[in-house]
Input
Amino acid sequence: MKKNCAKLLLVSALLLVLLTSCALPPGGKEVQLPLVPVNCIAVLPAGTIAAEDNSMNYARAKNLESGAAFVNSLLARELADHAKVRMLSESQVLSLVPEMSGGMSGMVSHIGQKLNCDAVLSTTVRQFEQREGTDYAVDTPASAEIVMVLRHAVRGTVLWSTDFQETQQSFFDNILSFDKMQQRGFKWVTVEQLVEEGLVEKLGQCPYLH
Output
């Protein structure tokens, strides 16, 4: 049990190094041009910010873990059959941890070298709050924030990054939300629906996944 816990902490630390090194520029989106040739993308399991916030309570940390598990299921559904993508499980990451050194760039480089991949995609769940209410009336709407960063395995540079951040609003709170409310059938969506919609859209915008 202690050995498994230690390994889990190592994975959390690995993902934390990767994710906390992924600050996005103003506008929340970045594409390095010109695009570089990428034949293989290693996709890490989604992580959360729980390990970097000592003041976070148990309920929010648990929500984030649920969010990471849900995001992993979406990533598998959307990317597992992609010709360029190699999905990594937590156990596969664990097997690489003892051999890694050199900080974030060393980790990305090592993963790329071991898997013969040109780039590594990391995803972090920063917020995953379920709505409180029903389809037509809520006390608190669903709210989510997801950050994704694709790094070149050799250079360590950011090839592409994006974030998805939304707290659902009603038409009366934001007149610009009418089109989105209409697409959702004028319903208050769950956080899973919110994340699925946003994540699929963001993945569709990544030039390296076309």
Summary: The CA atoms of residues 46 and 123 lie 5 Å apart.
